Amino acid sequence: MAEISGVLAAVLSSGLGGTSIGATRYLVSSLDPLAIGSFRFGIGFLLLLPLTLLRGDRWPGRGDRSAAIGLGILFFALFPILFNASLIFTTAARGALALSTLPLLSLVIGAALGAEALTWRKSIGVVIATLGVAVALLSDLASAPAGAWRGDLLMMAAALCMALYGIWSKPLIGRSSPIAFTTMGMAAGAVCLILLSYIRGSFTPVSGFCLPQWLAALYLGAFGAAVTFYLWAFALERTTPTRVAISVTVNPITASLVGAWLLNESLRWNLAAGIVAVFAGIWIATTTGRRAQAASSQA
């Protein structure tokens, strides 16, 4: 049951992450990516902190704090910097496909570090889900600016940050709590982004914000940060890093649906086919085959 709740939390987290792309794309015309990240994770931290204190959740212990802060900087500062920088060179579709290498990276690195077993079922599920993303984005992948490979590599580096965070944070989350661990890491990442934004003068346009911009920033902080990354940590506590990571293939799907709803972007047949493949891949990777079930029942 815990395994199922972890997978569902990861899928919901990635789905919310996809909707956050719409809010980010709305804000990016008036605010630079560093400032957007500062608002997103700064507001997220301010929302998670009182909840953590009211619940009395267990914070990372003294021996785990430096690791929690370091992983927070990796995930909540370096990852968004690489993510946003990649989109300077490549298209959103190619970037989404590059980010979808996350489950493959998690599978290989997790197996190399002994964090989880490498199985055929997980491998096939990861490949099918990744192909589903490629099919969903098929019509947008052909057009690429010169030097798009730079952006693709930057996005794969961002995916590597996520993979390492998922693998290294799992035991730390188990020794504290998902909310407290996420709150501490988000605070570390937000401080880095806010300092960089202040040095670059990225907050100057905020004085001209109207209600829609503030609502978009609040949405990113509440749902794009606090809820999304609490669910991610909740999932990591209950299932393997690869099973959490494969849910990221839902992200570009929900981003496309939000784009069609809010930004009047067209929907094509390949999106429907991609959705089917993505969820088929997630189902294969996160369920156990009959032979494995029989073996576990006999043990």
TrEMBL record:
Cellular compartments annotated: Membrane
A Pfam match: EamA
Keyword Membrane: yes
Membrane spanning stretches: 33-54, 66-89, 95-115, 124-142, 148-167, 179-199, 211-232, 244-263, 269-286
Keywords: Membrane, Transmembrane, Transmembrane helix
Gene3D superfamilies assigned: 1.10.3730.20
Membrane topology: Multi-pass membrane protein
Signal peptide: none
GO cellular component terms, A-Z: membrane
Domain EamA span(s) in chain numbering: 5-137, 150-286
Entry's family note: Belongs to the EamA transporter family.
Cross-referenced PANTHER family: EAMA DOMAIN-CONTAINING PROTEIN, INNER MEMBRANE TRANSPORTER
This protein's name: EamA domain-containing protein
Lineage: Bacteria, Pseudomonadati, Pseudomonadota, Alphaproteobacteria, Hyphomicrobiales
